[in-house]
Amino acid sequence: MSEPTDETSGESEPNNANLGENTEDKDTPETEPEHPEEVTGGDPAESAEPNAVENGPLTNLNDEETDRLMDQYIHYGEVAIETANQRVQMNRFFGLILTSILAGLFALARGNLTTTSAAIVLFASGFGSLICYFWYQSLQSYRRLNKARYAILNQIESALPVRMYLDEWRYLKREKPDPEIVEPRPDDDPDHRSHTIVEQWFVRLLAAGYLTVGGYAGGFILTPLLTSAGYSLPSPTTVGLIIGATVMAGSIGLFWTRS
């Protein structure tokens, strides 16, 4: 019986070596869809048995204290769900508003622009990019908040017979829960992709769209200024397309390297 235990602990060492990485400001690769600490606040290879609690306030609880702990656990889980609902509502609000404004800017920026209309598009695109930045920071804030909350929930579960949140993560990682509740996911199932990563890339693409249309409008402002200064430039539309394409490629490349 001791040999299977050694094999399990040996397999978990590569995962433990990655726990020191800072994933707060970057997305993890597809093969490591989300860092264990960000989901559960603990190591997926950690034992989930009740006797895993060796010291601290969760040690040697009597029946009354266990019931009280269970009530706190249920309430705190409801708070975590409420926070997730607030996050969904925030995403719907920002997504609807920013997508609609961006579509309107692309419709307004078709063809030739006057200096006034180009200035309006440039200002609106800059404002939209700024809102995308604050939206992205809000997602990061929710991510850190969830990391803290699920770390607490996972610690409370160490005093319960089953650690559901940790077992959920183990299932997504194709690892067996302890105690074994369900079979691991089949190997042919698609890899789990963090919802936070999808949200962040949606915001990044929106920001790239705003920067692109802003660069296009900037071409209609920059061309007359440089032409009056004696420079020979192509038409404002051509300059705008060049600037817009350059800004789009640069922003997507920057987002990709920082992801």
Topology (elements, then pairings):
Elements: H1 2-17, H2 36-39, H3 63-108, H4 115-157, H5 164-172, H6 195-228, H7 236-258
Helix pairs in contact: 3-4, 3-6, 4-6, 6-7
* Secondary structure tally, helices: 7
Tell me, rounded to a whole number, the average pLDDT.
75
What is the CA-based Rg, rounded?
25 Å
Fraction of residues in helix: 55-70%
Cα separation of the termini: 43 Å
Main sheet: strands, sense, barrel: none
Shape: elongated
Please tally the β strands and state the result.
0
Summing up helix and strand content along with how strands pair, one would put the structural category as mainly alpha
Task: Tell me the fraction of residues in β-strands, as a range.
Answer: under 5%
* Series of secondary-structure elements, N-terminal to C-terminal: HHHHHHH
- pLDDT < 50 runs, ≥5 residues: 1-52
Number of domains: 1
Structural summary, described in words:
α3 (63-108) runs antiparallel to α4, α3 (63-108) runs parallel beside α6 (195-228) and α4 (115-157) packs antiparallel against α6 (195-228). This protein has one domain (44-258). The protein has 259 residues and is mainly α. It has helices at residues 2-17, 36-39, 63-108, 115-157, 164-172, 195-228, 236-258. Mean pLDDT is 75; it is low at 1-52.
